[in-house]
Protein: LacI family DNA-binding transcriptional regulator
Amino acid sequence: MKSINIKDIARLAGVGVSTVSRVINQHPDVKAETRENILKIIEEYNYIPNNSARNLKRTETDDVGILIKGLYNPFFAQMLGSIENILSQNGYGLLSHYNGDNSASQLDSLRSNEHMRDIDIAYEFIMEKKLCGLICLGGDFNDVTEKDLLRLGVPLIVASTNMDESINKNLYSSVAIDNERAAFDAVTYLCDEGHRHIGIITTGAGDLSIGTARTRGYMNALSNAGISKNELYFDMGAYTFETAYEAMNRLLDKAPELTAVFAISDIMAIGASKAILDRGLKIPEDISVIGFDDIDYAAFFNPTLTTVRQPVREIAISTGELMVGLLESVENHKHVQFPTKLMIRDSSCSNRENGGENK
Structure:
């Protein structure tokens, strides 16, 4: 019997490829009747993901690489398990590589914009490990050219980061959120609550992706509220507790009138919060704090952290399923965007009683 692929299963069942993938990966969000029909077809045709006939056509390994920005990012750590589960159930291995050390040296590179391009690191990873596909969790890809993408030679998915809008979208896939809009909504919430002196802990010129987008959202929110940009309200960290702690101390020294601070990641927000508390100030009574990502720590930090929630599980599942579809040659490149939600918790409060002025 001629071997069939996941696209054939989908056609025979009258459903989409993603539905077949969900059944294979035992996701609960498939109707029982549909699930039973797909499983019957899989059994009838003896379909095995990643069959040997397909392997004979490839010189690469069956390993998908995951290039992770930063030595340890809790948000990406939450994604890894779901992605690995989907890939392994479809016959693929997973190799991870951490890009960047999340230290003071990384902050120096962010400030100076002098560091090896992430797309070049991706190419070396693919060549060294003979990968059949690559997923990038985070990273800076705004300087990527179409020639760079063609050179990779394998399916690429960028997740939780951005690619330059001018790049041909048929050359890569993406799974992300609207970082600029989410940051805009978070800072607009602070403005609506009466805050006028709002600081930001962000990244430097070397961060061409998420940091830039979230900073742009911050500035647009202030402009929309009629608040002028104040250079003293900006400081930089490198997605770590330590660098954000130092950045918050600098902000408190140069702008003691701040009533709120927006950090572009939860890790940075927690580092900033420690600096505030170590000064003998109270959160949120003296300074409100907002983070971004809604990592597990956010709901257990004291005070619980107001933050932007990304749908981490949905992003991970979509990324894994999309990679399987690309490797099976049954999916074209896609660009998926998920909504976010502002989780209002104990680290923020209104400043209206003071007319928007410092308390």
Observations:
- Residues 51-59 have pLDDT under 50 and may be disordered.
- The chain is about 40% helix and 15% strand.
- Residues 1-48 form a domain with the 434 Repressor (Amino-terminal Domain) fold (CATH 1.10.260.40).
